[in-house]
Amino acid sequence: MASNTALDLKEATNHDELVDQASKHDEKTLVAPSAEPSVTGRQAHVLERYINLASVVNFGVIILASWESFAVTFQFALANGGPASMFYGSILAGFGCCAVGFSLAELASIDPTVGAQYRWSANLAPSGKRFWGLLQGWITTAAWCFACGGPPSILANIISSLAIFNNENYVPERWHISLIMIATMIVPFVFNLWFRKLLDAFEITGGIMHIVLFIVFIVVLIVFGPRSDSDFVFKTLISDVSGWNNPGVSWGLGLLSMTFSVTGFDSVLHMSDEVRKVRTRVPRSIILACTVNSVMLFVFVTVMLFYLGPLTEEVTTAPLPLIYVLYGATKSKAATNCLISLLAVIIFFALFNMFASVSRLVWVFARDNGLPFSPFFAYVHPTLKLPVNALLLLSAVVTCLSLIYIASATAFNALISLQALALHVSYFFPIFFMLLRKLRGPPPPYGPFKLGAVGIPLNIFSLCYLVYVVLWMPFPQILPVTKDNMNYAGPIFGAVILGALGHWFLRARKTFKMPVTRYE
């Protein structure tokens, strides 16, 4: 990378030390536009900085978990787009992820804050700053709260699929899946209560497993898997299985599985108040999370397509086709069970990190009076030094989603699908407002990480990529559309927007506190 985009470590360290020393003071001196006392003014809600470089880097890399996410969800791309969509889509998604991630890393270097997207939007918007802050806060918080139901549902799918694989007579009921989801949620919730003590061990273990298991999967597939023809990988476009007969539409819908695998790199931003030397370490974590996971995703997709084997009925219709891909390669149930179980462990680590990250986002948004019952959710336990009430909210959300699954799998999937759409929208606005500042001038004072001459082109490419991806997300995956296969992401997202607007006009326009950033 060119010198004008490099991190000036010496200068950055000095800046970070000042930020660390001033963090508690800043909580008392941030300016709010309203005369009413803020949540911060009534109680001291401050987290301590203790997370080191290794932990914050592994945190970002693990929670993205690109190749693991693709491995357990690629069945959706098989019906739309197929191998060609997966291969070329992984390239586009990788470049798009890095462009957006680098743009956010520049913003994180300027103003590292737990609120991230909503505080940047508010402070960079040319007008209506508090309105944009609240709207962005609702979008980001809702996306991540519902996203917390994703890993438990994946873990439930893994466990039930392994049960079917080992016992063909087993037929999972919906309430079985719900109970598994609740059980897998309880463990990371309890572990998060001792987050400070478990952090280093969890992040190091998860980081090692993320890389080692990737190598193991690659070796197993190459050594034991049947090799496919190159035409199958590069030229096979499936457009007649899902009902969409247009190859372009099928390719675009297949791309969503790739983008889902590299979405969520903003999670480490929401830990900013607990990271030492935050203005260099958080940008580094985002950059490494995006680049490392994008490369791993591309390699894994390419290898798996070459050694996928024949598209049997089990591979194309199973809830977790990876089981039958591995079994077809190894011919061993023991090896297949072991590999899938280790994959589930990494997803568990990602859920642990997700609970930590989202609880901080809820906490800081409540601290700015952005939520109903903000004083309750802004509470920090004096002994644990954690936002315990925010953690309880996430547990309640996952529990409710699990119970909804019993009544309707469609409703559950509709709520879960909000994550990808809302997160991509949340990335758009701060990058767009930053681009406007760069074009109109003057931009805010840059931090240690600066994109330099490539900043404006990279920001423009990021926005184009986000718009392109978001346009496909409300499309139904299967035709003809019924109430069971309808894509409800668009309506759910609209409901979140209406909720934010209602909150703004009823109360938040008077009570929402948008503190100015340190550079202001």
Helix-strand pattern, N to C? HHHHHHHHHHHHHHHHHHHHHHH
* CATH fold name: Amino acid/polyamine transporter I
Q: DSSP strand (E) fraction?
A: under 5%
- Sheet with the most strands? none
Low-confidence stretches: 1-44
Distance between the termini: 29 Å
How many H/I helices?
Answer: 23
Helical content stands at: over 70%
- Average pLDDT metric: 85
Q: How many individual domains?
A: 1
* Helix/strand/pairing category: mainly alpha
Specify the CATH class: Mainly Alpha
Categorize the overall geometry. globular
Counted beta strands: 0
CATH architecture: Up-down Bundle
CATH superfamily: Amino acid/polyamine transporter I
Cα Rg: 22 Å
Tell me what you see in this structure.
This protein is mainly alpha-helical and 520 residues long. The chain has one domain (49-511): Up-down Bundle (Amino acid/polyamine transporter I), CATH 1.20.1740.10. The chain is built from 23 helices and no strands.
TL;DR?
It contains 23 helices and no strands.
